[in-house]
Amino acid sequence: MWLLAISLPLLPVIIVTVTRYWGGLGALYRHLLRVTPRLPWRRAVCARSVHGFVFQNCTHGRPESVLETFHLYARTHPSLSLGPERGELLDEVVRRVAPTWALELGTHCGYASVRILRLLPPTGRLLTVEHDATTADFGEEVILVAGFKHSQFQLLTCPSKDAIPRLRAHVGAELLQLVLMDHDAGQYLPDLLALEREGLIGPGCVLLFSDAHLPAARSLLEHVAGRPQRYAARRQVHGLLELQRHPLATPAPQSSAQDPSLSD
Ligand SMILES: C[S@@+](CC[C@H](N)C(=O)[O-])C[C@H]1O[C@@H](n2cnc3c(N)ncnc32)[C@H](O)[C@@H]1O
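C-alpha cells predicted for catechol O-methyltransferase (264 residues):
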C-alpha cells in the first residue's frame, strides 16, 4: 500500500520517460536480446509474435510490404531482425556483388532473407540456416509469403557448424559470393574457418557480420586483423562489419592442418 502511495506521484514522470525514450528502450532491449544468445527465452520471445504480425498485416506476394511490416512491428516491439539501417548496407552489397550463391547464417523470421532474395539476379540463390526448428518454420513461411519459391532459396534447419559441411552438396562446383552471419557472434570465427576449410569462399567473396561490435566477435576481428593478405575490412555500420576476401587471395586449403593461419 505504502509502495503505491510513493509511486503514484511518480506516475506522470514514468509515463513521460517511457514515451520519450521508447525508441531508446526498444534499442536497449534489442541489444540485450542479441548479447544473450544462449538464454532459452531469447528465440521464443519474438519469433511467434513477429511471424503472426507479419503474416496478418503484410500484402502477400510483395517483398517490400513484408519488409515494411517488419519495420512496423519493430516500432512497438523488441525485434531480432537485422533492421532497416543495417538492411540498407546489406542491399547495397547484394546489388554490387549480384551473387549467384548467397549464404545467411541465422534466418530467424526471414527479414534479411527477404531483403537478399528481392535483389538477387535471376540466377541467384540463397541458402539460409536456422538451428531452431520452430523458428525455421516461421522464417520459411514468411519467405514464401513474400512470394519467393524453393527454387530460389533453401532453408537448412540445423546449427551452422553442421550446415557448413553440407553446403558443397548445394552449390556443386561453385563458390559463395556473399555470406551474412547474423546468428551468434561467438560462432563467427569457427564458422568462417569452417567455410574456408570446405573451400566455399572464393576470392572477392563479401562477408557481413551483423554484431561485430560485441565482445564475442573479438576473436574474429583479431583473426582478420592478423591476415591482411587474405581479408580487407571495408566498413562497419551499426555493428555490421563488411569484409572482403581479397580478389587475388590464394584458394583456401582443404584442411586447416595444411595452413596454420586457419588453425587458430
Ligand atoms: C539475430 S537472429 C537473425 C535475424 C535474421 N537474420 C533477420 O534479419 O531477421 C539470430 C538467429 O540465429 C539463430 N541461431 C543462433 N545460433 C545459431 C547457429 N549456431 N546456427 C544456426 N542458427 C543459429 C537463432 O535461433 C536466431 O533465430
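Residues 6 and 66 are 45 Å apart (CA to CA).
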